[in-house]
Amino acid sequence: MQALDTATLPQRDRAEAMITYLREVALAPKVVLHDPDRAFMSSRVHDLGQVQLVHLRRSGLFIEVTRERDDCAPVVAMMLGSKARATREQFGHTLDQRAGAVDMVELNHPHRTWNHTSRNGWCLKLPADSLVLPAATIRRARPMLLSSPLQRVYASHLRMLTRMVPALVQDPGADQVGAATVALTRAVITSAAGSDVHTREALHDSLLPRIEVYVREHLCDPELGPAVIASAHHVSVRLLYRVLADAGLQLEQWIIDQRLDGARAELASAAGSRRSIASVAHQWAFATPAHFSRRFREKYGVTPREWQRAHR
User: Quick count: other Cβ atoms within 10 Å of Cβ 303?
Assistant: First the structure.
């Protein structure tokens, strides 16, 4: 994880550090700060396989890339809109940022960005080559991205990643999540560009890893079930079960196993050692403490109380 926090630097060095950093990550030879004396930035870059999820908090600025960069591999940035005012221009199309929506910039090609106010938001960076799409398709998609029928699905996926990224980076399946995100990025771009065949292929490739991420985030929701999961991914329950069966997963047992693993880790933690078994069972969406204790013992060979006492 790469990081920059100008709060750790002397005031006189912050503007220069911010400009230097942005020239590297945004491939921008020109960076103009609205108020250099009060400029600030904190940045965290999280690696998920082929993709990078970048969190930026920074003061207002203007960024301009005046020529095509041929000294590095092409990079596409998918910008998740925040409430801050921002405008981006590339290839003759100027778009205002919309909160909750996703815009796209090809960082290696000439573009301009106006961040009219301070910004606290996220973007996804990925190698353009990973999309396996013609450059013309990517370029054609950008003006139509906001109207793509997959825009909401894609934005929802990125927001979910931002909430889970600290845990995801440490997860053995981080590369798979990155691959699913590349496939979904490909799907939303081809959808906006009007290529239906590529869209269907990319959606299919990304479905299972997206389901896995979604389930992991909603494990503590007692309403989590096949209908909810299928609806969130705009597929039928029948297709959901078929995709999981192809991967050797039985949905209900898979969810219970993950809930049990989460509860087991909770009971072994310092905070969990002081909690009641009933409250832990409720947190992990088990119907009753008795049901929780029975399933826990079946899987681990000890009761939740015995496990908790052993880790105090």
Answer: 15
* Residue pLDDT tens, the chain, 312 long: 457 899 999 988 999 998 888 888 777 778 888 888 888 999 899 999 999 999 989 888 888 888 777 777 889 999 998 888 889 999 999 999 888 899 999 988 888 889 888 888 899 999 999 998 888 999 999 999 988 888 888 898 999 899 888 888 887 778 888 988 998 898 899 888 886 666 667 667 778 878 888 888 889 999 999 999 999 888 899 999 988 998 898 999 999 999 999 999 999 998 888 899 999 999 999 999 999 999 999 999 999 999 999 887
Alpha helices in the chain, H assignment, sequence order: 11-25, 135-141, 151-170, 174-193, 196-217, 226-232, 237-246, 251-268, 277-283, 289-300, 304-310
Neighbours of 73 (CB within 10 A): 10
Give the integer Cα–Cα distance in Å for 53 and 124: 5
DSSP state of 49: T
Domains and CATH numbers, the chain: 2-217 (2.60.120.10), 218-312 (1.10.10.60)
